[in-house]
Specification:
This protein is mainly α and 211 residues long. Helix 3 packs antiparallel against helix 10. It starts with a helix and ends in a 5-residue tail after the last helix. 42% of the residues are buried.
Length: 211
């Protein structure tokens, strides 16, 4: 963890940090094992530490923090749209793959119902859950939901997730001081949010649909 903080910290002073963050967030819809959330938190922690946030001084790098948030949010939405388009054009092979998975089939059905009823808050919730973004994006495309039903919720989900992740790193550094401690606490809070989102999604699944 400390080595990762040092490496990301060395990138925060260069434009490359945005490229690394964008690629990680963009691709983790296809590879949920990518630690994009950890990367965003670590980048925010390193950036905050470098601007004097830990000492309570007014940070001169706040625009960088804002840029990091917008970068992560934009990459999240673009990744969602790519997955949506891939699934929408996936044809019979993708349909058969989804049909073989009870989890994907159930998620696909619930997502379609939620979007059609305007309950796209499920998309926002799924963004925080492990692999939830992948299930939602592919599910929306595979069920041929209209992009205007999916895109606004995807944008809200991406912005909410990015703002939460960046805020964790920034404020933890400001309050705790030590970058390594702030990173550890922030990553823990990120995982806790993911576990909470997954729990809420399981609870929602048990609630019968209204007729």
């Amino acid at each position: 963890m400390l080595e990762s903080v040092a490496k990301v910290g060395s990138l925060t002073a260069t434009p490359w940090i945005y490229v690394v963050v964008a690629l990680s967030v963009l691709l983790d819809v296809f590879l949920p094992v990518l630690p994009s959330g950890v990367l965003v938190v670590t980048a925010a922690t390193a950036a905050a530490a470098g601007t004097g946030a830990a000492t309570g001084q007014v940070p001169h790098g706040v625009p960088d923090i804002l840029a990091l948030t917008l970068c992560a949010a934009t990459a999240s939405v673009l990744g969602d749209l790519v997955a949506y388009r891939v699934a929408r054009r996936g044809g019979e092979r993708l349909d058969r793959a989804i049909a073989r998975s009870r989890r994907l089939s159930t998620a696909q059905e619930r997502l379609g119902t939620a979007l059609s009823r305007g309950g796209g808050a499920l998309v926002v919730l799924a963004r925080f859950a492990p692999a939830g973004r992948s299930v939602v994006s592919f599910g929306a495309g595979a069920t041929h939901r209209r992009v205007r039903e999916f895109l606004p919720w995807s944008a809200l989900a991406g912005l909410s997730w990015a703002a939460y992740s960046v805020a964790l790193g920034y404020y933890a550094t400001r309050w705790l001081g030590a970058a390594w401690l702030a990173t550890g606490v922030s990553v823990g809070a990120l995982f806790a949010a993911g576990a909470g989102a997954a729990y809420l999604m399981r609870r929602t699944r048990k609630i019968p649909e209204a007729s």
